[in-house]
Each structure stands twice: as structure tokens, then as C-alpha cells.
Write a structure and sequence with these properties.
alpha+beta; 293 residues; binds biotin
């Protein structure tokens, strides 16, 4: 596996998402399959839903389902994750009922090096949906962090099974901080995280956000498979938190590199011109220093 639960799909069952027990949503309604379907405008993505009150990780479950031949578009959705995974072996804080914790199964039949473009695409779909719905100025920090005013509001984790030259199955996991108050984040994230609620000053309904993300992702996915990544790269650049030419430091597989940002390529790798004037391509890593807008 590489980075890039009730087990039946709950399509159309209005009671499917009713969650018994002590957990109570702090704002709005539960993000049940029925609630999501009231807002869903996608043709396929998110119509087969595997919904859990609590699960270890929606990505882990989606990978299992993909291995068991679940078709493209299946969505694993949870109210809470006990082992939410972040990029680079980090933990994703997944407090019950406050966020969106969802993983989409894809079968893209693209060369494996192109898989990261799909996680970039998910971050574009998330930022775009948040901006369309709430006008909060969400931007993307390479590769897939969604930020508002420099604070993280959402993250994307793409995982691919196997090591074939073509991607046969892939899972794109999306985590969005929606109804978190400042005190809901662990102390170490207090200064670096935000939520839709904090940005808007009021709790919001999670279902239209997830529906918007799924519709935007599906539309871009169809275009990428048909026409290639030109439009996606343009959109990503227009949402980039880092302007072209901005100085930055990147922690990549071969250590830290400093230079200026010169864009991303069609496989989603970051391009950096080093102090020596040389062009570097960083496929995996993280920005550790920059002036974000
Ligand atoms: C990151 O920014 O580090 C990526 C965070 C991805 C979190 C989501 S929440 C739903 C899905 N399931 C997981 O275990 N992780 C992703």
C-alpha cells in the first residue's frame, strides 16, 4: 500500500444513518446517507455509501472494499475515526460529528506516477466547494492541504494498492474540519487549524459540503480522464496558497531544499528553482517554510 464498516451500502434507506447511543451531533444534523443524498448532484460518486458511527479509518475500510471489487464511486463515510490517517504517517484528528471523514473508491486506469494528480484534484474540489458555499477564501498548500488564512481546514490522503504500472484501484480520503470550535482541536494544532464554523462564526450543515465536493470531484475526474490535466493544473495554480516565485523550503526524500516556487507538473510534483539556479522536481514531501497568501 502506498500513500499518494454495517457493511452493506446504505443507498436510499432513510433510517440507515440513524445513530443510536450516547454520541450526539453538536451542530446540525448527522451526516447520514439520507442527509447526504438530499444534496447529492453527482451521477455516480457517493451513491453507494458505507456509513459508520465509528470506524478506525475510512481509508482503511475503503481499501478493503476496493480489494473486494467494490465499484468506482463507492464512499465510506464515518461520524468518527479512531485511527484517522494523515499524510506522512501523521494522525488525523477525527472528533465525532464535527468533521467530514470520507473516502472515495476510484478505478482510474492511469499510469501509477499520475495518481498524485487525483489527490491534487480532490484538494481543488474541496477548496472550490468551501469557497462556493461559504466564500471563505480557501487555498491549497502543496500537495493537498486546504488552508484558510494559513490555517489548515482540510486534508486529502490518496492511497494506492499494489505496485503495478497502472493504478487499478485507489482510495482518496478527505477530512474537513467543519463544526470544530477552537477547544475541539488538540493543543498542538490550536494555532495551525481552523474550521468552517470558526471562519463563518456559526455551525453549518456538513451534507451540502460533502455533496459539493463529490460533484466537483466527479466533474473534474471525467475531464481529466478525457482531456488530460491542463485545466486541473490551471485551477490548482489559481487556488495555490503559494504564489509563483515565492521563496520556500521543502522537505523531500533527499533532504531539505530551498529556492523559489515555479509550479507543479502533470504528475503533481512540486517544481522549485534552487539557489544555484537549477530546477528541482519534488514528487513527495512537504513545504516546511514559505510565505503563504
Ligand atoms: C493530511 O492532510 O494529512 C491528510 C488527512 C486525510 C484525512 C482523511 S479523513 C478521511 C480519510 N480517512 C483517513 O484515515 N484519512 C482520510
Amino acid at each position: 500500500m502506498s500513500e499518494t464498516g454495517g457493511d452493506k451500502p446504505l443507498r436510499g434507506d432513510p433510517d440507515a444513518g440513524r445513530v443510536p447511543g450516547p454520541l450526539q451531533p453538536s451542530a446540525g444534523e448527522s451526516l447520514t446517507p439520507a442527509a447526504l443524498q438530499r444534496h447529492l448532484r453527482s451521477a455516480v460518486f457517493g451513491h453507494r455509501i458505507f456509513y459508520y458511527a465509528t470506524i478506525n479509518s475510512t481509508n482503511a475500510r475503503a481499501l478493503e472494499l476496493a480489494a473486494a471489487d467494490e465499484p468506482e464511486g463507492g464512499l465510506v463515510l464515518a461520524e468518527e475515526q479512531t485511527e484517522g490517517r494523515g499524510r506522512r504517517d501523521r494522525v488525523w484528528c477525527s472528533t465525532a460529528y464535527l468533521g467530514i471523514y470520507a473516502s472515495l473508491i476510484l478505478r482510474p486506469a492511469i499510469p501509477a506516477p499520475r495518481a498524485p494528480a487525483l489527490t491534487l484534484m480532490a484538494s481543488v474540489a474541496v477548496a472550490d466547494a468551501l469557497n462556493e458555499l461559504y466564500g471563505i477564501g480557501a487555498r491549497i498548500k502543496w500537495p493537498n492541504d486546504v488552508l484558510v488564512a494559513g490555517r489548515k481546514i482540510a486534508g486529502v490522503l490518496g492511497e494506492v494498492r499494489g505496485a503495478e504500472p497502472e493504478v487499478r484501484e485507489m482510495v482518496v480520503g478527505i477530512g474537513v474540519n467543519v463544526n470544530h470550535a477552537a477547544a475541539d482541536f488538540p493543543a498542538e494544532f490550536a494555532a495551525s487549524a481552523t474550521s468552517v464554523r470558526l471562519e463563518k462564526g456559526a455551525p453549518v450543515d456538513r451534507a451540502p459540503i460533502l455533496a459539493g465536493i463529490l460533484e466537483g470531484f466527479e466533474r473534474r475526474y471525467a475531464r481529466l480522464l478525457k482531456d488530460g490535466s491542463t485545466v486541473l493544473l490551471r485551477e490548482w495554480a489559481s487556488l495555490s496558497a503559494l504564489p509563483m516565485g515565492a521563496p520556500l523550503s521543502v522537505e523531500g526524500p533527499s533532504g531539505r531544499l530551498e529556492g523559489v516556487f515555479t509550479g507543479i507538473d502533470e504528475e503533481g510534483a512540486l517544481l522549485l528553482r534552487g539557489r544555484d539556479g537549477e530546477q528541482h522536481r519534488i514528487a513527495f514531501g512537504a513545504i516546511v517554510g514559505s510565505l503563504l497568501r
